TrEMBL record:
Transmembrane parts of this sequence: 20-38
Domain of life: Bacteria
Gene Ontology molecular-function annotations: transmembrane transporter activity
Protein name: Biopolymer transporter ExbD
Keyword flag Methyltransferase: no
Species annotation: Gammaproteobacteria bacterium LSUCC0057
Amino acid sequence: MALGKRRNSEEESEIDLTPMLDVVFIMLIFFIVTASFVNESGLDVNRPPTTDQPPPPEDSSKRNIVFRISESNELLLDGRRIDIRSVRANVERMQAENPEAKVIIDAHPKSKTELYVLIADQAREAGVYDISLATDNKK
């Protein structure tokens, strides 16, 4: 009888690892499948080629509308500080004076992207669709 009890205790002490391995493989497959479908959000930017040539001389009748965004996120138009809510009115006024004017947003590299988007949206609402972004890496 003592021999029979010894075999039962040895059989009970063995752990079957098959179910645990099945769970680990299922979790591995789950993480591999879900990781491949994660999309990072962002804006796709197509940068134009850089040139060392200076820009052509600006004709006073073809003056562009240039907004400057400082490092502290202040918005400047013709050297004066303006509010973001007045962008559309200023663009409409300046476009009435010069219908071929383009909007150029000169943003500091450390300024917020949100301001660029707000200015571009306001300019489109004013009817100007030719909007450019200018930055200076030396700032």
